Structure formats: structure tokens, C-alpha cells
Amino acid sequence: MWDKIKKAFKAAYTWLLRYPVALLITILVVAGAAILMLFGVGDRFNVGGLIGKLFGRDDTDEKSEVEVANEVDPDRTDSEGNAIPLEEPDEHGWTQQEVDVIETGSNPFRDKSKVTVKTSEGGEKKLRLPTGVEDKDVKRIIEIKPDRFKVEVKKAPNAVDEELIDYLRS
Q: Which residues contact residue 72 at a Cβ distance below 8 angstroms, ignoring those fewer than 6 apart?
């Protein structure tokens, strides 16, 4: 009985308070993003991700594990310690294959922290990218094991050296 009452209050809160407030905030966010695009700022903001968070929608596959790297997984070595190239099986029989990334499009209201990929089984998965990586930064995605993906970014950030720090201080 208590669970039904709790569920009813939660549904009432969601439909009577959360969604109307989220709708008002969404209208303001979309208007602000449109104004910023008119001034030439472009789609630098993750408007789609913000709107998804307002409405509490997350359609990514939570059991999938994503790692960021620009190199082959160091654990993928043979018995002599040499790296195993793509599409060759390791000692456990796993084959590291490249996964095609579906085009993200130019919609400025898309969620840039998510990407949809085709898996080796022929299906599709929606993955949440790690913090700081957007869909336009992805060079390719490699499926290492089922539900384990490696994301290679196009360009890693430049390292800050002492010369740059001294220049910025002066």
C-alpha cells in the first residue's frame, strides 16, 4: 500500500511540477542558444544534454564501459609481450575490431556527450562519452570486448610547459 502511495506522489510531482518547470527552462535555453548562434558563437554548448537532464532522460547503455586512449590497450599483448594488432584474436579469443560511428549530424540541440555506434554483433548501442569528450572530438571507437569500448580522440590537448607558464605570468 505504501509503495503505491509513494509511486502516486512521485508521478504527481513529475507531471505537475518537474515537467512544467523543465519546459519553461527549456524554452529559455533554446531561445538563448538561438540568440548565441545568431551572434556566431556556433554550437559550443551541449544544449541537448542540458535538455535531457532537465527532463531526466538518459537512454545510454549503462553496462557499457568506455575508456579514452590514443593507443592500443596495453593489456592486449601476446605471450612475448608484443601488442596484438586490430582484428587478430588474443589468447582468450577476443578480437579487437573497429566500430563504425554513425554520423552525428549538425543539429545544434543534440546531446554531444552521447554517440551511437554499431557493434560487432550488428546491433547499435548508445554510449555516453567520458567527461570532457564530445562527439566531434571522436576519431574512432573500437570495441575491445562485448560492452567494452575504447574511444580514440582526434587530437589530445597540448601539454603545458614552463615556457608557456612564464609567458602567461609576464
A: 83, 84, 85, 86, 96
Confidence (pLDDT) at 71? 54
Count structural domains, the chain. Answer: 2
* Alpha-carbon gap, residue 152 to 71, rounded angstroms: 8
Q: What is the pLDDT of residues 78-122, one digit of tens each?
A: 778 787 777 777 777 777 666 565 566 677 778 888 888 877 777
Domain match, 121 and 81 both:
yes
Q: Is the distance from CB of 59 to CB of 126 less than 8 angstroms?
A: yes
Q: CA-to-CA distance for 127 and 113, rounded, in angstroms? A: 8
Long-range contacts of 82-86 (CB under 8 A, 24+ apart): 86/142
For residues 154 and 139, the answer to whether their CB atoms sit within 8 Å is: yes
